Amino acid sequence: MVTGAHVPLTVDLSGLRVAISAGAGGIGRVMADSFAACGAAVFVSDVDAAALESCPYPRLRADAGDPADCAAFVDAALAELGGLDVLVNNAGIAGPTAPVEEVAPDALDATLRIDLASMFHCARRAIPALRAAGGGAIVNLSSAAGRFGFPLRAPYSAAKWGVIGFTKSLSMELGPDGIRVNAILPGPVDGPRIRAVIAAKAAAGGVSVNEMTDRMVGTTSLRSFVTQQDIANMALYLASPFGATISGQAIAVDADMQGTV
After folding, report:
1. To the nearest 10°, the Cα dihedral for 208, 210, 216, 222?
2. Marked catalytic residue, from 43, 156, 166, 237
């Protein structure tokens, strides 16, 4: 199902100043660890107090669903790092798993606020600093749900499709300033979040968790979930000199997904 943790990318990012939303746990923490291992200075935000407590990086507790907290996160990163070269918009939630007519308005609003609007609020605050640095990179986390329809996951899919439009529009605005903007589209990433989604979809479809897992893995040509390290590696690449001419792209890291379940 998963072929291992996969090898961390090694690239010299010494002196790079990186802010990562939701960076104290999950994919965000692996990104933070990976950037730091390559020599970058890292600042993270997270809403999870326990994850922040165990996080070794300068940090701020912030709710990505709150525009004021998004601004406070970027401001704190600038104060700590003395500027900014890379913003990683990683914050996101799975949202509800239900038919559209059963999705509560509050659940829809929360999904759109955290998975899409937070990227707008963080980026608008960070852009002046990226310009002042002479250019840089913004990496937005979308999803395979940003290129396929996801039955029973309409709020999440709508948000992640929105991330693609936001990314492309922002890349065109900021390209003349030397600021690259790209989106990463993870497929099913092995970990607690996908396990919860699988359990919810299995319950909704009246099948076992094992059967739903097999169905989801079966949508990929490589018959595999991806790992958090795979996603971190792409973020490193896009933020590094190797990604110097890559902008406006929606890049799938998904074991070649061919559809959804």
Report:
1. -160
2. 156
